[in-house]
Specification:
Order of helices and strands: HHHHH
Number of helices: 5
Radius of gyration: 11 Å
Helix content: 55-70%
Distance between the termini: 12 Å
Number of strands: 0
């Protein structure tokens, strides 16, 4: 398996979070409320700018009903 650099990982995370959020027909604000995080964090994740903590990823994954690995995989 090819290794990804951190920028590629952030881009992959951004695509997965956006896809899963849109699948639920949620806005970024909706996801932030469900996850208990700030909307600015969701925006930063989806624009590949954030380097979220594991705790934040866990909250987002839980709100989306997926495992953290699904966000990164």
């Amino acid at each position: 398996m090819a290794r990804r650099n951190s920028g590629q990982t952030r881009q992959h995370l951004a695509r997965n979070v956006r896809r899963l959020r849109q699948r639920k027909s949620w806005s970024q604000h909706d996801l932030a409320n469900e996850a208990g995080v700030r909307q600015a964090l969701i925006s930063s994740i989806e624009s590949s700018q954030a380097n979220p903590t594991l705790e934040s990823l866990d909250k987002v994954a839980s709100a989306l009903d997926v495992a953290v690995a699904d966000l990164l995989g």
